[in-house]
Amino acid sequence: MFNISTVSLDSGTIVLCVTGEVDMATAPELLTATRAALAEGGRRSVRWLRVDLAGVPFLDSSGAHTLIASREEAGRRGVGLAVANPQPHVQRVLQLMGLDDLIDTSSHRPSDAAGGTVQL
Predict the structure, then answer these.
(1) pTM here?
(2) Cα separation of 50 and 73, whole Å?
């Protein structure tokens, strides 16, 4: 079952917690969720959108392209995008597609503008 929950942090970060496979059937839902989070963030001075993939066992090229589109949309809005906690298979897909060079895919939390660490 595919699910996305949203958590807004006081630190200027919105976290999308994704569970289930991200493929051509579910990638549009992820894109809709990232766009909604970015729109909400524009009203609240959000600096980071964090997509937590800890609950995603599979991500195909549709999911990877969704992350690219989300990064581009975030960049246009002046918001950073990070992918957190990818499972090994998902991390490998991101590496093979070169996304680990475009998107912060480390398991650490993105730093805020003040140089601190975003706390979850």
Answers:
(1) 0.84
(2) 13
SS (H, E, C) the chain: CCEEEEEEECCCEEEEEEECCECCCCHHHHHHHHHHHHHHHHCCCCCEEEEEEEECCCECHHHHHHHHHHHHHHHHCCCEEEEECCCHHHHHHHHHCCHHHHCECCCCCCECCCCCECCC
Q: What is the β-pairing status of strands 13-19 and 80-84?
A: unpaired
d(C-alpha 88, C-alpha 50), whole Å: 18
CATH superfamily of domain region 3-102 = STAS domain (3.30.750.24)
CA 45 to CA 107: how far, in whole Å? 24
116 contact partners, CB below 8 Å, separation of at least 6: 11
75-84, pLDDT tens digit by residue?
A: 999 999 999 9
Q: Where are the domains of the chain?
A: 3-102
